[in-house]
Amino acid sequence: MTPLWFFSALAFVLLLPGSAASQSEPRRLTLEEAIRVALENYPQLAAARAEARAARAGVDLARTAYLPRTDLLWQENRATRNNVFGLLLPQSVIPPISGPVLGTSALEQTAWGSAGGMLVQWEPFDFGTRRANVDAARASERRASARVELTRLEVASAAAEAFLGTLTAEEAVRATRATVDRMQAFARVVQTLAANDLRPGAEASRAQAELAVARNQLISAEASVESGRATLAEALGLAGESVAPNPGALLELPPAAPSPAAGLEAHPLVEAAAAQLDAARARERALDRSYFPRFNYQFALYGRGSGALLDGRIDPSKGLLPDVPNWATGLQITFPTLDIFAIRARRRAESSAAAAEAARYEAVVQQLRAANARAATAAHAARRIAANTPEQLSAARDTERLARARYDAGLTSVLEVAEAERLLASAEVEDAVARLNAWRALLGEVRARGVLEPYLEVVRRSVK
Q: What was the pLDDT predicted at 464?
C-alpha cells in the first residue's frame, strides 16, 4: 500500500510554481511581429524620439528671435532723498537717484517711491543672422530625425538578427537530436554484437564514446537556444520574458532582394551626416553676418511716483502710486567694432568644423558603398551554399547508409561508421541552417541600403 506521505509530496511538487507542470510555453512570434514588438518597446528608440522632439523645439526657439521683446516692471520702495553731483561708472550695486542736489545728508527722512512701465524692443532687420540660426536649428532637427530612422533600422535589424539566430540554433538542435537518436540506435546494435562476441568490446566502447560526443553537442546546441531566446527577448525590449521564434516560411530559400528604390542618399547615416554638415555651414553663415550694426527699435511707456518734493519737504501721501506718466520711442544702433577679432577666430573654427563634417560625410558614403558590396557578395554566397547543401546532405546520407551496410556485413570497423555519422551530422546541421543563413545575408543586404521594408515585403511574399 502506498504511504500517504508519497501522495502529499507528489501534489506539492506538481503545484510548485517552477515545476515542469506549471511552466508555460514561450510566446511564439513571427519575424514581422518580432520587429513590430521591438519598435514598440525598445528604450533606445524612445530616447531617439525624445531627442528629435527636443530638436524640433530648438527650431521654434530659434524662430522666437524674430519676435519683439516686451518687458514689464513694477517697483515700490522706501528710501532717503540724499543726492550728490559727480560721475558714477556703470555698475549694479549702488541704486541711482534722480532729481536735484538738495545739500542734505539726513538719513532719517525717507519717502515712498514707485515706478511701473513697459519696454518693447524689436530688431527690424539683422542682415540674415537670425535666418542662419534658424537654418542651423533646422539642420539639427533633420539630423535628429535621421537618428530616429537610424535607430529604427538598428532596432529592427537587431530584432531580426536575434530572431534568425535563435531560429538557427533551434534548427541545429533538431539536426543534432537526430544524430543522437541514430548514434544511440547504433550503439545498442554494437553493444549487442559485442555481448555475443561477434564484435570486439573496444568497438562497443567507441560507439558509446561517439554517442557521448553527440549528446554533448546536443547539450551545447540546447544551451545556444536558451541563450538565443534571452538575446531575442532583450532585442525586443522584453528582457526576462520567454519568447521564441515562429519560423513561418523562413525555412525555405528566400527570393532575391528587390532592387533599391533610392540611392545611398536616403540612408539614415547619410542623411544624418548631411544634416550635420548643413548645421556647420549654417553656423558659419551666421558668423559671416555677425559683424554688422545692430538696429533695435524701442518703445517705452512708464510712470513714476515719489513723496520727495523739490523744496526738500516730504509728502507722505504721495509715492505709493506712479502718478507721473511718460513715454518714449526711438531707434538704437550699436556696432561692436572690436568684436571682429573674436568673430574671425570663431569663423575659422566653424570653417574647420564644416570641413571636418564634409570629410565625415564622404567617409560615411564610402563606408556604405563598401558595406553594400560586402553584403551583396555575402548574400550571393549564402544563396549558392543553400543551393548546394541538399546535395551535400544526400551524399552524406548515402555514405552513412553504405558504411552501416558494410559494418553489418563485417567488412569494416566502427571507425568508418563513426566518421560517416560525423559527416552526416555536419551535413544535416549545415543544411538546416543554410537557408536561414541566406535569410540573414538578405537581411544584411537590405540593412546596408538603409531600408528594412523591402526585407519584410520579401517575408510577406514568402508566406503567401
A: 56
